[in-house]
Fold these 3 entries.
Entry 1:
Amino acid sequence: MPMLRAHVYIHGRVQGVFFRASTRDEAQTIGIKGWVKNCSNGSVEAVFEGGKNTVDKIVNWCKKGPTGAYVERVDVSWEKYLGEFNEFTIVY
């Protein structure tokens, strides 16, 4: 299976609704590596690395997010897989 890296920005009501923690939980459940963090403009930024199917799955999950979130749009940049992460973390 090809390995992929997705760099995403999630826009909408995505802070204060456990988006980061829920993203971490979802990523860990499906075996994605990378990180997620809040941005000063109110969006959430994340980098996901893994197999094509699992990266597609987490990117699609971000389009809805957890209960309480309202996702307006998700911007995705597909990048070269680097394999630089050992786990999925929240960046503060």
Entry 2:
Amino acid sequence: MIKTNVHQAKTHLSRLLKAVQKGETVLICRGEIPVARLVAVEPGPNRRPPVGQVTSGSVRWTEDAFAPLTDAELKTWGL
């Protein structure tokens, strides 16, 4: 566990956060009294996949997918 004061925590926050990411716990004290603890959080389930990672199967479509629309379909779309 890393123990530090408020001033040092503000000055070296980036360094302390890197230590927390590596598994350390940081105790921030005002004088000798502990006031806060920095600990890592679990990543949420909604993290985006890395760029280039395949996340689904191939896209498929029917043969008529690109056929011209009928007059009724055009009317439905207001065209």
Entry 3:
Amino acid sequence: MDARAIIAGLRDGKGASRESLEWFADALSDGRVSDAQAGAFAMAIVLRELDADTRAALTLAMRDSGETLAWDLCGPVIDKHSTGGVGDCVSLVLAPALAACGAYLPMISGRGLGHTGGTLDKLEAIPGLRTDLSETQLRHVVGQAGCVIASASDRIAPADRRLYAIRDVTATVQSLDLITASILSKKLAAGLEGLILDVKVGSGAFMKDLSEARGLARALVDTGNAAGCPTSAVISDMNQPLAPALGNGLEVAEAVRVLSGEMPESALALITAALGGLALFQAGLAHDIETGADAVTAAIRDGHAAERFGRMVAAMGGPVHFMDNQARFLPEANVIREFVAIRSGYISAIDGEAMGYAVIALRGGRRVETDVIDPSVGLSSIVSLGQHVTAGQPLLYIHAGRSEHADQAADILATAIRISDDPPDLPPLIHERIS
């Protein structure tokens, strides 16, 4: 095989064979392909795009560039992936809820990306908890709790790890084919029997347009199924934060509130039930989506989901009694400041992306990979679309480590929330289901 010939074939629109993609993925992993060749490979895919079969072949080649997990458990091994949004702490609620319903979830998650928070960063707000687990440790946690949320090891899809870094510096990140292969190669390496995808659309998501979100959802679903993993997706709304808080420790607190049954009608609880119902139905643990959603809601209401989350936290090195008094363990910011409305009216628009960048200004996210995150900072008690407010009423609270950081966040938030005289039309929580 020759890297130049493979790149030229993609560049000229001739595609690539399964064997050539397998060779290229292996060569990415062991260094036989240079950075220049990897960048040219990515650019050729961006410019020419791949057909469905070739996209699936690339995904499997990247999956098979490293180790894959195999399981022998007494229930289906499934997972969920979100394309990213603000206040999106669904995984912290959904994983233990599904485990309480008889599924097993070895959830390989990531760090914050751009304006969105990362599930691993959120979990690590819990003192002592570690997400960088060995395979032996990962299997132990799954055995103890039925679920684990951990980082991918260097041995999982190493071709994607290298290609992702190169895409970031070669303007090839925004490619439906490469996004699909990147997401699914890591997920499929976990040995899944089913996958649910939550594709976000709106001001707080990477996909702002419904047609773009639909295209990504369809590519992910078709590729996952072609790779032999039953895959379905929902397109859910991200025109406002999913939870009324942004920031790692604050989002953990919101997830615990839902797990404790305090917010049964919140958007976070409702999207958890919707995704969980689809997952349980697809995995054969529910007769239909509605029955599955009811089972997830029941697991939260009766405390079984909270008990599973507590088990997972303890097995990952966190406090044994975390669920008994989470406020005792989660960090608290030095500065807490009101951000108030300058006029009365209805909340008609929320710029979720701006809110995400406000959290980064507070040091709750990363500008560069080496930045250290403050898990105590963020935004809380955020107003919701359609809510009526009066002048001087808090729209949210800013949690900061220092006053000057709170000032920086307030400057970003100045135009993030729009207040109008008339109430807005509220978007649906779930726009579409794709299977």
